[in-house]
Amino acid sequence: MAEPTASKAPYVVEWRDGFLIDIAQVDREHKHLFTLVKRLELGTVQATIDELLDYVVTHFTNEQKLMEDSGYPAFNEHLRLHEEFASAVADFLSSGDEWNDDRVQTLRRFLNKWLIGHIMTHDLRFGKWYRDHHGTDAPEVVAKPAKKVGWFDRLLGRG
Ligand SMILES: [Fe+2]
User: Fold this and answer.
1) Any idea where the Hemerythrin-like domain is (predicted)?
2) How many domains does the chain contain in total?
3) In this structure, is residue 5 part of a structural domain?
4) How far is the CA of 9 from the centre of ligand 1 (A)?
């Protein structure tokens, strides 16, 4: 039997408070990532992807700095998850396939699913660990993307 026509509808996942990990800066950045994913549409896809990838680098860099500075024991494992994500995105984008509505929806679906899975498992685990070891007021961090995220640009052929 054919898929219901609902599969043609844009795949939309709205931010919800259930995604909060209770670290204000990380939550704010996660929320913005959802906004950017939602903005992906055929007419402006490349510009939004560029903005999204830059913001992913900013967010990963900040989150990783907070993890590293706070002595998070699973830091290296978490770094690897971020790298695997970047690698998967780079693979998807490097196919060079022409953009059409289906491909945009595939990208949105992948990004939303990855974000939710990652936040609800790994970032939430960090949030709990942080609260147990450092309390509720995490400092705002402004990390400079440096060699630690150079892999992202390299994967995307920008380095
Ligand atoms: Fe993360």
Assistant:
1) 23-124
2) 1
3) no
4) 29
